[in-house]
Amino acid sequence: MAYKHYFEEFLSEQPIKVQNKIYKILEIVEFQQIIPSKYLKHIEETEGLYETRFSLGSNIWRVFCFFDEGKLIILLNGFQKKSQKTPKVEIDLALRLKSEYFKEKKERK
Questions:
Q1: Element (H, E) at 66
Q2: Torsion angles phi and psi, residue 95, rounded to 5
Q3: Per DSSP, what are the bridge partners of residue 93?
Q4: Which stretches of the chain are DSSP H helices?
């Protein structure tokens, strides 16, 4: 499940080959009991923020996500990685979206 429009916008901007790769990785994350860290990795110094990781050729992409109620993966923003380190601005956006999600969920109850 994607939160708001960020993931869909990111996905729609990608070439078909990249979209197919994203779907393949998300399928692995959804259906595997044990997910290899090359596909899903916890972001250090965050509480429960993860990134799905994938590459095609020499290009690298990341999609941030988190778990809700232990199972549900909520997809946030995605980006093409162009440097060794994940940009802080991308992590900050993902953390802000995660906070918004839980705030909205709490308000619905």
A1: strand 59-68
A2: -65, -40
A3: none
A4: 6-12, 16-31, 88-108
* 71-to-21, 64, 67, 102, 106 alpha-carbon distances in Å: 22, 15, 6, 15, 18
Angle at 90 between CA 65 and CA 61, to 5 degrees: 65
- Planar angle of CA 84, 89, 91, nearest 5 degrees: 75
Which pTM was predicted?
0.86
Per-residue pLDDT of 68-103, as tens digits, reads 987 778 899 999 888 878 888 999 999 999 999 999
How would you list the strands of the sheet with 72-81, edge to edge?
40-42, 50-56, 59-68, 72-81
